[in-house]
Amino acid sequence: MSKLRAVAKSLPADEQGLSTEAVFETLSSRRRRFTLHYLSQVGESVTIRELSTQIAAWENGVELHAVTPKQRKRVYTALHQTHLPTMDRLDVIVYAKDRKTISITDQIQEFDLYLDIVPPDDLPWSQFYLLLSAVISVLVVIAVQGVTPFSSVGGFGYALLASGVFVVTSSLHYLRDRRTLIGSATTPPEVEPPREITE
Question: In what residue span(s) does the DUF7344 domain sit (predicted)?
Fold first, then answer.
């Protein structure tokens, strides 16, 4: 029986999910976030060497073949001694120390609820929807006051406009969120492309 099944069977049905503390402890480290991203992307068991090489490439902004042994060893040591045992203890991954392999558990889906990556120059979606609602409300108030040309549209026209705007923006929001899910992109959202690509 796999470790994942053993853990699931040993817990009551209402306690089989990850706690909020476990999620935040996992996400508090960039290397643990990179680990989740890579394992989600690959979708199967990987060796610690493969994982450490990929994380070293992301951290140093280089292609896999350009990772030096020193860069890989630094990541390998931290993963082996700290990050992988922590994630294994939290039941986020299964870390087989004897074989030096790592595999992801079904708990990965619980992390999507906590990830909303907003670039520094972007407006968070909650503020965007608030601003959009305010603009539409102002237009309706102006129309009710009888200001032309806003008063010529009518209530149904404004209802249609508002629903259309919210359908379009929520669709864009959904598509953007799908791209920022763990493992959905080639590199984690917080990683810059390798130097040789940008130069």
Answer: 24-102
- Phi–psi pair at 123, nearest 5 degrees: -95, 130
What are the pLDDT digits (tens) for 19-52? 778 777 888 888 998 998 888 888 889 999 999 9
93, 104 in Cβ contact below 8 A?
yes
Domain assignments of the chain as residue spans, ordered by start: 3-116, 125-179
**CA dihedral sign, ordered 28, 30, 32, 35:** positive
The matching CATH number, chosen from 2.30.230, 1.20.1640, 3.40.50, 1.10.10, for 3-116 is: 1.10.10
pLDDT tens digits along 70-123: 999 999 999 999 999 998 988 889 999 888 899 988 777 666 555 555 555 566
pTM: 0.56
Two structure tokens written together for 88: 């294994």
Closest by alpha carbon to 23, among 196, 182, 193, 198?
182
> CB–CB of 179/112 below 8 Å?
no
